[in-house]
Structure prediction request, 63 residues.
Amino acid sequence: MKRRFSVSGPLGSEAEKSGNGDFSGHYCGQSIGLGYATTAHQLTTDLAAETTRRLMRVTDPGR
Prediction:
């Protein structure tokens, strides 16, 4: 039996039935390889740029 969190448990159970892993529990350290040293300013700038890029791709699929 998998451990489920009280809030996301029902979502995870239903999603898992259809093969969707979007509501799987994630634990500390799983994305350690994705981290990098940066400043708060640079992180915010990077997040804004990436968000804009992705939104543009969704709203204009030809890009």
In short: The helical segments are 9-17, 40-59.
